[in-house]
């Protein structure tokens, strides 16, 4: 399993180019875990990332390590519902 930490503002602290770099590094792995702590950010950037994740054909999981707000929700919802874990206490 390859872990992609999505921390900070989408489009500023974590960009689609960062995601593409991670996806390139994860080419040997068939599963990806998104660990998200983000207040949100640029929705267009988030939608580009979501498209890249969908096109990767990887098995996706997501969980939060903090906030998942605004544009970050788009990425949190990329995996199927059974592969998402939200911890409200974080």
Summarize the structure.
The protein has 90 residues and is an alpha/beta fold. The chain has helices at residues 16-25, 43-56, 72-76; strands at residues 2-7, 31-38, 59-68, 84-85.
Structural summary, described in words:
This protein is of the alpha/beta class. 32% of the residues lie in helices and 29% in strands. It contains three helices and four strands; from the N terminus they run βαβαβαβ. The chain has helices spanning 16-25, 43-56, 72-76; strands at 2-7, 31-38, 59-68, 84-85. The chain has a four-stranded parallel beta sheet with strand order 1-2-3-4. Strand 2 (31-38), helix 2 (43-56) and strand 3 (59-68) form a beta-alpha-beta unit. Helix 1 (16-25) packs parallel to helix 2. The two termini are 23 Å apart.
Number of helices: 3
Q: SS-based structural class?
A: alpha/beta
Q: Characterize the biggest β-sheet.
A: 4 strands, parallel
**Element order, helices and strands?**
EHEHEHE
The dominant shape is: globular
Unreliably modeled segments:
none
Number of strands: 4
Roughly what percent helix?
Answer: 25-40%
Strand content: 25-35%
Our Rg estimate from Cα atoms comes to 12 Å
Round the mean pLDDT to the nearest integer and report it: 96
| Distance, first to last CA | 23 Å
The strands making up the biggest β-sheet line up spatially as: 1-2-3-4
């Amino acid at each position: 399993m390859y872990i992609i930490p999505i921390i900070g503002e989408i489009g500023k602290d974590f960009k689609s180019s960062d995601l593409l770099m991670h996806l390139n590094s994860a080419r040997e792995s068939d599963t990806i875990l998104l660990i998200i702590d983000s207040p949100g950010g640029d929705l267009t950037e988030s939608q580009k990332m979501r498209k890249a994740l969908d096109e990767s054909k990887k098995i996706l999981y997501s969980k939060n390590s903090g906030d998942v707000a605004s544009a970050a929700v788009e990425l949190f919802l990329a995996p199927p519902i059974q592969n998402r874990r939200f911890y409200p206490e974080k």
